[in-house]
Each structure stands twice: as C-alpha cells, then as structure tokens.
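Is this the right way to post structure tokens for a design question? Let me know if I should format differently. Anyway, here goes:
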C-alpha cells in the first residue's frame, strides 16, 4: 500500500480534503481505522465537508462517528458546507447521529 511506501497520510487536496475525510464520507470503517492507525489527523480541516467528523455525520455513518469521537475529534469544529457537525448530521436527516452528538454536548 502507498502508506507503506512513505505516502503522506495527511496529504490535503481535492473535494474531500484528506484521505480520512474521504473514507469517513463514504462510511468506510476499516479504512478509517487503518488511516487513524497510521497517524491520520482527526482534526484536519479542508475540502467540502470541513472535517472527517463532519463528513461521517453528514453521511449518517454512526460507527465512523463513534470511532472519530473516540479519537478526540472536535465536535465544535466549524467549516465545510454545513458549518457544524450537528448541522451536517441534521441536513442528512440522521436522527441517531444527531442524538449521539447531542450526548457529546454539541451546540
């Protein structure tokens, strides 16, 4: 894999910003786990979604949201198309993710 050949796990660019944001947007739990294990920055901002947590929330990917929260993702980060994590989850109509975020005291 490219990461084993020295690829930058936090390289930025394109629609998704980082590989972690792209994997989170697609709900690809195993890829998210691998990227986090290789040092992907859970706080990186950029691209259409702002952060990986915003991307996962907008897609309603509950397991990925839980994983990112467990790694300390900033629930108050702002940016991207929807502004906040809670707005991203709400825009997608993802009630369970909204409830999970409220549990984390998201405003």
């Amino acid at each position: 894999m490219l990461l084993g050949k020295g690829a930058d796990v936090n390289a930025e660019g394109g629609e998704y910003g980082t590989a972690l944001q792209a994997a989170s947007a697609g709900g690809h739990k195993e890829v998210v786990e691998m990227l986090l294990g290789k040092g992907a920055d859970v706080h990186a901002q950029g691209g259409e979604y702002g952060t990986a947590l915003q991307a996962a929330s907008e897609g309603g990917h509950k397991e990925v949201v839980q994983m990112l929260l467990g790694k300390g993702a900033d629930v108050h980060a702002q940016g991207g198309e929807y502004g906040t994590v809670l707005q991203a989850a709400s825009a997608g109509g993802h009630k369970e993710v909204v409830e999970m975020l409220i549990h984390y005291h998201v405003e």
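Format looks fine. Someone answered above. Worth noting: Strands lie at 78-79, 83-84. The chain has a mean pLDDT of 89.
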